[in-house]
Amino acid sequence: MMMSEKKIVSVDFAQEDSYSEILPRSPHISSYHQKWEGLRFDVHQQPGHETPEHLLQQHAITISLEPIINKAERVFDGNLQSENIANGDVAIIPAHINHISRWQSPAEFIVIGIEPAFLKRVAIETGDWQEYDIKPRFAAPDPLIHHIGLALKSELEFHDQSSRIYIESLTNTLCVHILKHYCVASANNLYYAKDKGLSSWKLKQAIAYINDNLEQDLALAEIAAIVDMSMYHFSRLFKQSTGLAPHQYVMNCRIERAKKLLIQTNQPIEKICEQIGFQSQSHFTNVFRKLTGITPRAYREQTKI
Fold first, then answer.
1. What is the separation, in whole angstroms, between the first and last Cα of the chain?
2. pTM to 2 decimals?
3. CA distance 273 to 184
4. Is a pLDDT exceeding 50 seen at residue 188?
5. pLDDT band at 217, cuts 50/70/90?
């Protein structure tokens, strides 16, 4: 009798229960219902486990949140390697590659799924990359991806205070980093730059749009579209022009607007918070204190003495 061929499980992060066939527990934190563009972000707490052989429909990045995981192994297309995984270590699992992971002790980790079409779009915007392949990567340190993962985790945990433009900036930075450091690519007409920033009229357009829409949950793509640029090039040139990333500039504008309202009106702080685009008063207070050194209430009292 012929033995049946072993089934390779297909995993699609576009499905809410995508992990059910390869992991014993669902993620305890997930961006699935937040609908972040091009990206799904999950935090797992799993017991020791061995996944069945599977392939992903999306590119995946895993980030360990454990001090150390001994006696772990990973298999890429039949290539087995032992791993001693430390806190912050990053593995990269490209889409459509056969993969198995096993570990003996309980583990907490992040999984970031990136849609191939979204990464392709960033690749084209970044420098007209015609073809590229993401290289599989066994667990090893990558401080930037670790930092981005923790920042996204923080935004997800406090989603009522999260900033759309900040999440988009982090996603964009992550994709560009993956393309630059973990891809074998054929790139033509790359133009990374001897630019000196945005032209004066494009900078004025962008700043005017930001100031006219501070009460909105501003999106990086919206601001870039105003000056007819990709998110990547707009972000890079905007920072060259102003010294600040777009999300930092937006926060500074909101706090400057708040200062004027605190001095010139008697509106409640909660009302001012709504007018400048903060989702909660606590988030507004935290950002105000970070940028000015005091709370909004203290600032108002101090300026009226």
1. 92
2. 0.76
3. 47
4. no
5. confident
Can you tell me the distance from the alpha carbon of 132 to that of 183, in angstroms, rounded to the nearest whole number? 6
Q: What is the mean pLDDT of residues 25-53?
A: 94
Amino acid code (one letter) for 78: G
Q: Report CA torsion sign: 66, 68, 71, 74.
A: positive
Please tell me the distance from the alpha carbon of residue 193 to that of residue 271, in angstroms, as a whole number: 43
**With left for phi above 0 and alpha for psi between -120 and 50, is residue 23 left, alpha or beta?**
beta
Separation CA 59–CA 91 (nearest Å) = 11
Task: Give the mean model confidence (pLDDT) for residues 65-75.
Answer: 87
φ, ψ of residue 102 in degrees (nearest 5): -140, 145
For residue 212, the one-letter residue type is D
pLDDT over threshold 70, residue 144: yes
Could you count the other beta carbons within 10 Å of the beta carbon of residue 221? 15
Measured N-to-C along each axis, helices 231-242 and 200-212 cross at an angle, to the nearest 10 degrees, of 100
The CATH number that domain 200-303 falls under is 1.10.10.60
Domain extents for the chain? 9-187, 200-303
CB proximity list for 186: less than 8 A, separation 6 or greater: 129, 130, 131, 132
Domain 9-187 belongs to what architecture?
A: Sandwich (2.60)
